[in-house]
Every structure is written in structure tokens, then in C-alpha cells.
Amino acid sequence: MTREPFDILLVEDNLADAELAREGLQDGRLLHTLHHVTDGMQALEFLRKQGPFAKVPTPDLILLDLNLPKKDGREVLAEVKTDPELKRIPVVVLTSSESETDIVRSYDLHANCYMCKPVDMARFIETIRKIDELWLTVVVPPPRRR
After folding, report:
1. pTM of this prediction?
2. CATH number at residue 95
3. 144 part of a folded domain
4. Alpha helix (H) ranges present in the chain?
5. Residues facing residue 115 across a β-bridge
6. Which of 27, 64, 74, 85 is deepest in the core (most CB within 10 A)?
């Protein structure tokens, strides 16, 4: 069940990692629009369509870093998954943390997936491509709420 375009919200403060994610998705098979914000407060404003984000689409997928300025990814995840309007949006935690505590806490907060960012650039891009492949060929996402 492919819907086009697939809207992805990337919440990532590291601009180099954001560019690698963009590159990895660009070559994928999933027609998408990538939206990028750099901190947790912007992410919540985007998701709630507040301020400069009043006319943005509701994303079909959130790629969320944990270590963010202003409001960290754990707080964003907790707010998303307790908000009746947002809780069905799949959230992939994409972070450099391999901490068991972060992994367990993310799943306790109802993350849909937890992936560690590889340090190697080529492996990082390949990880992003696997996210693309998974969401295009395997996962059936919830219906869109506009």
C-alpha cells in the first residue's frame, strides 16, 4: 500500500548526519518529502502545526535523534506517544546512543524502532536506505490524519 509522497520528519541537530540521511533517502525507492528540524521544540511545533509550521503536512514517519537541544528526543517521544492526534505516527529512534538504558526507555515510551547510527559514512547511508526499504516494502503504516 504505497502512498505518495511519503512525508518524513527528520529531527536531527547534527547537520552532517541530516545531510547523510537526506542522501540515503534520495536514492531510495520511496517517493518522499523530507522535512528537517534541528531541535525538540521545533519538532513539536512542526507536529502540532504551530507558528511557522502551520501549513506543513502531518508526517507519515518521524526519524528522531535522542540528543537534541531545547527538548531532547526522549521528551519529544513521550509527548508524541501520549498525544491522541500524534501517537499513531511511527517513530524510528535514530541515534548514536547504544546505551541499554536509552534503548529500553525508548521502547517503554513506545518507539516503533530503535536504530544506532553507524559511525562509518557509507554504513550510515546504508542504514537510511534500509529504513526506506522497510517502510516501502514491509510496513503498512496507519491511515493518514490530515
Report:
1. 0.89
2. 3.40.50.2300
3. no
4. 15-26, 40-47, 73-82, 100-108, 121-137
5. 94
6. 64
